Amino acid sequence: MFLISQPNLSSNKLRKSVLSCQILQKSNNSVGFSWAQFPIEMSGVRAVVPSPSGSKLLVIRNCEGETATHFEIWDPSRVKKEFAVPASIHGSVYTDGWFEGISWNADETVVAYVAEEPDCPKPTFNVFGYMKVGISNKNSGSWKGEGDWEDDWGETYAGKRQPALFVIDINSGDVHHVTGVGRELSVGQVVWGPSIRGEQSLVFVGWPSDTRKFGVKYCSNRPCALYAAKSPLFNSKASISNDAEDLVIVNLTQSISSALYPHFSPDGKFLAFVSAKCSVDSGAHLATESLHMIEWPSDGKLGQSFIIIDVVPAVMCPEDGCFPGLYCSKFLSYPWLSDGRTMILSSVWGSAQTLLSVDVLSGKVSRISPHKSNSSWDVLALDGDNIIAVCSSPIDIPEIKYGSLVGKISRDAKWNWLDVSSPITKCSEEALSLLAPMQFDVLKIPIGDASEDLTEGARKPFEAIYVSPKSTNPYLCDPLIVILHGGPHDVSLSSFSKSSAFLCSLGYTLLIVNYRGSLGYGEEALQSLPGKVGSQDVNDVLAAIDHVIDTGLANPSKICIVGLSHGGFLTTHLIGQAPDRFAAAVARNPVCNLALMVGTTDIPDWCFFEAFGSEGKSIFTESPSAEHLALFYNKSPISHISKVKTPTLFLLGAQDLRVPVYDGLQYARALKERGVETKVIMFPDDVHAIKRPQSDFESFLNIGLWFNKYCK
Question: 455-485 pLDDT, tens per residue?
């Protein structure tokens, strides 16, 4: 069963549908995919979660305009049960990939999940002042006040303050809040522990929420731990125990600053998890991850202390061509091969995403997607010991691949990859004809400032993805668009992007730069950037541009630049520091003035860390000094604004909590004041990413028009 999302421009929403598929093993050891004739639209659906046996299907809906959350339990032919959970019990269910956690118990009678806890009671007033608790409001002329303000979790979580843990009995519809977890924790990523004598514990991630909440989206540097709870306790008959001892929660990972994505081994003997301790300990919003495990007690008793076993440590400085460390944005709900010790996952490796197998008992990591492929791969599901994955590149639309294990499971096992014909990945002949003349390569860019004070990892070349037509004349270069990712500790992957493909179709060559500080190159290279933003990253981009010019791949008089967030920070820095190099620029929700941003963003600690480097975490304060503000200003693009002459388009999301809109507006107004050609498009309902279908469409249409105006 494949979940499909499709932009619906008329409704300005993503249309979601499901397409069923049956995998057929043939007598000649080949495999066939039998697809349903048409997908089925899933209106109002927030999540679809099959039970472990596959005999039941949970569908969660929050229909537009309704306050209740609907739970549907399907069997293969019909809806067997349906329950509406009112907002007085909990708000919407989290299905965001971060706080999200929806998990069936072993006998498929109970589902654990994360939903927004109801707001604290609001004070009630009438014309005489406060009303006493318990007095009826009927005909009293009273109204609800606002009460105490409370932090939310920032960008994309506006109004989301308290993710809490609930369980629902799918036979009765009874919903219980796991009351042992207080408001001092926000929870997510819940799973059931192994069944021991008919009892199961809940294991989940907890983030402290009794102090200042910083933005958590794209930020793994928030301390968190794995916790276990034994209440509400459902046995095989779904009875509930409310004994006081069952209400206690246990911190399983006290000795490590971060624990995420818990997964029990198939035999229930150990619990594997990822740690973002490099992020938490340093202050980087994303960094190299590590994999760990703990042995689960055979008697199910949680009172003991747990020893954390290191499985895959963070890689500081990878050897050339070798494993650069873990960078995983998601995990399969069941990532295990049949040996019970090998996990399959997707991870960034340089400018590509690759498929890895990890033996959690030996710590051995193997790359199982083709080594010679510069394309990006992502695992979708496992079919026994076979892998269903998707593969794409900047010039190839996504294709489904089926990986079959050749021989036995081992570190050096070979995988045979088959192309799967799928209606999901079809596109128009016109689109294919526009992609056909294109080619791409991943370029190694030498470091221009390899000083002795750099770590070994920071002296290694970084990468840039170069997308160009298959030109027969090497002296005729299309105009070049330099594309810069945000973060800065993020990465642009060699996967298909419809927006990048659109720009190629207009006759542009692309240079997509993964400057030092990006994910996928080891921790030393990543940590070389904090404290040097606006200089090291700017120099890396200029080095990449010089590289393609010197090798005859770009015309120096026809170069445009576009970036989002920190990529916008670099865009506006570059048009100030190198004012004669760019014909046009586009900045999408850019960081232009750190001194302004630090007092308004949901991640003020990011400003300190990126500007001050390793000391930024320890000196962070909500009341920056004049000296702090001066350094923020000097590190910012606005300090170079007097030199800018490049025509610049600004695309701004008015609901952006990460880089609030006035940061970009101040810079745009300053450019206009200086007579620089400037255009601003404001999207009133968009957040930082500007991803709503109509906004995305209008954004890139205007980017194309802007570049055509100044670079064609």
Answer: 999 999 999 999 999 875 656 789 999 999 9
